[in-house]
Amino acid sequence: MNKYVVIGLELIIILLLLAIKYLNTPIALYVNGITALTVLHGFIVFVIVVDLLRRLVSYIYAKRKNLSFSQKNNFQFGVNNIAKFIIGLGLIIALFGMFGIDIRALLTSLSIVAAAIAIITKEYINDFLIGLYFSFSKDIEINDYVKIGDHKGRVSEIQMLKIKILNDDDDMVIIPNSKVYNSEIINYTKRDIRSLSIDFQISNTAIKNLELFEKDLIDSLIEYEEFLEPDSFNLKIVNMYKDSIDLKFQYTLKHLDRNVQRDIRKKTVRQVFNYISEKAALPLSDG
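Given the sequence above, the corresponding C-alpha cells read:
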C-alpha cells in the first residue's frame, strides 16, 4: 500500500478515535464508562501515534539521504526496533490497566519480583541493547558482506534480538545479537568488495616453483578474463609447515554485481579445485 495512503488512514483513524473519546455522544459515554474499553481505546491511539511517528521519521530520513521508501538501512531498522519496544511497553501497561492495576504501585510493592523478571529476561534485554547499538553503528550495515563466526553472507536485517544474513547459497542465517557481538566479525565491505580469495593447502612436493604455479593458476582462469581485473592476481603464502604450505590465491572482479560475483566465485573455485586436484593439492575453503 502507498505510504501516503497509510499515513492518511492513520491520521483519519486517530481523529475518529479522539472524536469517540471526547465528543459527548452515546458511544463516547459508553466507552468512557467501561475501564477496559477506555484502556483499549487509549492503547489503540497510542499504537497508531507511535507507528505514525515511526513512518514520518523514516520518511524524513529517506528524503534527506535520497533513499527510496522501500530501501532500509541501519537507522531505519533502529527506529523500527525502538517503536516495537515502546509499543511492547505500552501493551504491558494497557493489560495491567484493563484489570484496574496501577503498574507504578505494583512495581513498588513487588520490587523483588521485578528484579527477578529482570534477571530472567537479561538475555533478551542484552540482545535488544546490542541490536540498538548495531542499528546506529557503522560496524555492520545493511547489505554489508560479513563473516560472523563460521557464517559468511550479506546482512539483510538488523532486528531487535537477531541479525539476519543471506549466505552464498541463499540460505537465511539468523544469529542472536549477543552472539554477533561476542564473535569475531570480518566486514569484507569495508575493503574493496570486488576482491576475493581462495584458500588452500598443498603438499610441498606438489610444486617446485611458486611463480610458475601462480602463472598456471592464472592461465587456468583464462576463460573468465572478461570478468576479472588482469593485474589483480596474487598468490600469497599464509603458513608454512614441514610437509605442506597454506596459500591464498587472490583476484578482483571488474564490476560489483552480486549474481555475477556468486557465479564467478563458484566457477573460479571449481576451476582452481580441478586444477589443483590434477596437481595433487588439497583445497580447504574459499574466501
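The radius of gyration is 28 Å. Try to locate this feature in the C-alpha cell string yourself.
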